[in-house]
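Justification of resources, computational component.

The compute hours requested in this renewal are based largely on the per-chain cost of generating structure records like the one below. Each record pairs the submitted sequence with a full structure-token output. That output is archived, and it is also reused by downstream analysis tasks.
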Amino acid sequence: MAKYLTLKKSNCKNCYKCIRHCPVKSIRFSGNQAHIISNECILCGQCFVICPQNAKEIASEREKVKVLIQSGAPVYVSLAPSFVANYEGIGIGAMEKALCKLGFAGAEETAVGATIVKREYERILAEEDRDILISSCCHSVNLLIQKYFPEELPYLADVMSPMQAHCADIKRRHPDAKTVFVGPCVAKKDEAETYGIVDAVLTFEELTEWMKEAGVTPEAEKDYSEESRARFFPTTGGILKTMAKDAPGYTYLAIDGTENCIAALRDIAGGKIHRCFIEMSACAGSCVGGPVMEKYHRSPVHDYLSVAEVAGKKDFLVDQPDTETVKKSFAPIARTGLQPSEEEIREILLQMGKTKPEDELNCGSCGYDSCRAKAIAIYQGKAEVSMCLPYLKEKAESFSDSIFNNTPNGLIVLNEKLEVQQINLAARKIMNIRSAADVLGDQVVRILDPKIFLTVLDSKHSVKNQRVYLAEYDKYVEQTVIYDKEFHLLIGIMRDVTDEQNERARKEEISRQTVEIADKVVDKQMRIVQEIASLLGETAAEQGGSRRLLCEKIPKNAKFFGIFSDNL
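The structure output for this chain reads:
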């Protein structure tokens, strides 16, 4: 089934919107991608309708239909009665002409088959003692019962859908013919493949694209026939409008929307409903609200009126086949998915940060109705722990708070009014602030010179590693101020460099003192050198005889400075 609804992997953005709208949660997330679980899917098409990234697409059968036409066999179209809403102002005659230009042998309204089906419903209610009878026109509803409510299958009418009944009628009249159904529904593609009779299914979108490529435009031409009451079928309550509703003791109900159908089936399972004929449609508004039509934001009221305008008051003139010919059997369809134990559910809830019942917010952001349902989905491999938004938010906040409060650097966050929004422990220590509450909401000027913040705010450019002296606190800090354009915040980072500054000052003082001492030593030695030079000048003429005398007068440290080393 998943082959009829496929995923464009590159488009999926992990928004979980498809999960939230899937009535049976038949979507698995893995590798940051949504995957449809075929044996759980009922092909309602809601994931296709609501995906904001258009990541879901309906598989096309256009090429298959073209091959049928090229085979030489006459190919007839069964056109869903909702076509009058999709192709406004165009009747069946104009549509048939357009379809023949594409190579089809002819086209008829599926409403002909709807007449056959409703007559069989009337017969069952009149002749068979059934407590509850559920219409079997909607394949998504049939799949819902087969997969999720198999115990209620005896209540599902064992009758063909109008699509099948009409295509079977076409083939009785044209034995060599192939049949193609065209409508607003993706589920019909699966129905055609599962039960046969119908050779291919196109959506209105596929047909429209084909006609556009071929340059075929149906003429604006409405048609009305008194014998066309079954044209009401694609609207909510449309089946009931065509039926006699004279079975004694029966209540006739129309239910649309999968969620409402599920609620009704649960009531049936609980023994709360009896002696009813129930028209069930998975789509809100019935077939005129089909996924292909809803995707493009059709107006349900307008579409209903479009159908009502062309629906007559009598049945189509069609021969009713025998009961066995229109019979259809439904069998349960097994689903995978083991159920975890209570202990396993609790373990998964703990992984999600749900340690007590009040932690289970059941916010639905992950797409599941409750945290427990999400935990079961995780156990079944359909979901991931990271899909829990409150968990991720709490985790991110905890992580952020841990970093914010434990970093050795002082951090202060201001809004554009220069009001303190956050301040961490390290910053409070620098400025001798006892508690964050003492300054939160106050102007930063109360605790810091705002000049650097005003500069960054005006320029929208960060200032990095600016060393300043905080005279009020007798502290040296290295300041960095960053402007966050997205959240309109100023983030100040202060590194206390007081010890570094003091150590630098101490070293500078030692260096200064060392220089002073060296200068004094040099001055003293220079005086000695000058004295020696004077002595040398007095005895230059008596060099040989006075060498010994000179050696006695020269201080011993003269050798240390390398003076006269060559002569001594």
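The CA atoms of residues 539 and 546 lie 7 Å apart. The longest strand covers residues 475-484.
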